[in-house]
Amino acid sequence: MTVLKNAAKSGTVKLISWNVNGVRAAVKAGLRDFVARENPTILCLQETNAPAGGMRLDLPGYHEFWNNAVKPGYSGTAIFSKEKPMAVTAGLGIKKHDGEGRVLTAEFRDFFVISVYVPNSKRGLERLPYRTREWDRDFLTYALKLEKRKPVIFCGDLNVAHREIDLANPKANVKNHGFTPEERAGFDAMLAAGFVDSFREFEKGPGHYTWWSRLSDCRARNIGWRIDYVIVSPKLRPRLKRAYILKDAKGSDHCPVGIEFR
Question: How much is the pTM?
Answer without folding.
Answer: 0.96
